[in-house]
Design a protein that fits this description.
The protein has four helices and eight strands; from the N terminus they run ββααββββαββα. The chain has 129 residues and is an alpha+beta fold. It has a single domain, classed as Mog1/PsbP, alpha/beta/alpha sandwich (Protein Transport Mog1p, Chain A), CATH 3.40.1000. The chain has a six-stranded antiparallel beta sheet. α3 runs antiparallel to α4. The protein starts with a strand and ends with a helix. The relative contact order is 0.21.
Length: 129
């Protein structure tokens, strides 16, 4: 399942739910830390940080979009108790990151609860140039 949501015109979030994966926060983080990972993405790709908790893994990077504008991408994978993996990707401009991430962190719900995200809003705001 893939869902695309806009965040008050400040960015967009795509959501994918996987019930058949064998990944863990450790394996997802290890994949993002491979030298091949950035090469498979956009050319002006810079990883700002990657981390995991017991129930999630996340990477934050900057790149440029098709219009040659800077964007920030936050990919977060949240692992539910039943083994379901919820993959979310937030894309927004550096100027809108604080508001977009706050709206995302407080607005994406699964089974009535918020996702267990790796980062808090203040950390993301301080991290992004």
């Amino acid at each position: 399942m893939l869902t695309l949501l806009t965040i008050d015109g400040r960015g967009y979030v795509s959501i994918y739910v996987d019930t058949s994966g064998d990944d863990t926060p450790e394996t997802v983080l290890a994949e993002w830390q491979l030298d091949e990972y950035p090469v498979s993405l956009e050319s002006d790709f810079v990883i700002l940080d990657a981390a995991r908790s017991e129930t999630s893994a996340s990477v934050v990077y900057t790149t440029v979009n098709a219009e040659n504008r800077a964007v920030v991408v936050i990919i977060d994978v949240s692992f539910q108790d039943d083994g379901t993996m919820i993959y979310t990707e937030l894309t927004t401009s550096p100027e809108a990151i604080a508001t977009a991430y706050a709206n995302y962190a407080n607005g994406v719900r699964v089974n009535g609860g918020l996702l267990d995200l790796t980062w808090d809003v203040e950390y993301i705001e301080a991290l992004v140039p």
